[in-house]
Amino acid sequence: MKVSSMTQSLILHFGEMGSKWGLNRTLGQMYALIVLTEAPLNADQISECLQISRSNVSMGLKELKSWNLIKLQHIPGDRKEYFSAPSDVWEIARTLVVERRKRELDPTLSMMRDALLQEPGNDADRYVQKRVQEMHDLMEMVTLWSNELQGMSSEKLAALLKLGEGIGKLLDMKDKLLPNKKA
In angstroms, rounded to a whole number, what is the distance separating the alpha carbons of residues 132 and 119? Predict the structure, then answer.
């Protein structure tokens, strides 16, 4: 299987970025190839194109499936398994947010909750709990916001992001728009 020089450059870049995104280089390259190829690919095609071992491809496909980033497909008359990425990039982004939250945020929130339930033994522990509470509250807000975004359509997400600095201006005007009424 041949890919264009543009596709090859992007695959190499995704491989380099993979480690920064929580994936290894090979996984980043595999995912880039799957995302950037219109037709579903089988493991042999991926192996040939990226010049990596078939066993490495199999392990990578299992990892990408565990992240819910690829879909398994069967082609009539062919016994091989084929893989594709969602066509909607917003779906890919939503999936990445959910999977990263499950792997990173949720365990950290759980550990923080445990720390907050402990009785502080001294002033240093009380300070630690105060800081942990602040971090926990921030992470909870991020989680709630993330949950809200997960339920939005791709069109609404795009519109929200297009607001850009307009959101900051709106927040600056919030006191004029929503005056704080004190009884």
Answer: 14
Instruction: Give exposure, 95-123, as e/b (b: 16+ Cβ within 10 Å).
Output: beeeeebeeebeeebeebeeeeeeeeeee
Q: What are phi and psi of 153, to 5 degrees?
A: -70, 160
Report which residue type is found at 149: L
pLDDT tens sequence across 8-56: 999 999 999 987 887 899 999 999 999 999 999 999 999 999 999 999 9
Residue 115 in tokens: 């720390």
pTM here is 0.80
| Backbone φ and ψ of 137, nearest 5° | -60, -40
CB of 27 closer than 8 Å to CB of 73? no
Tokens of 123: 């002033």
Q: Report which of 128, 101, 98 is spatially closest to residue 114, judged by C-alpha positions.
A: 128
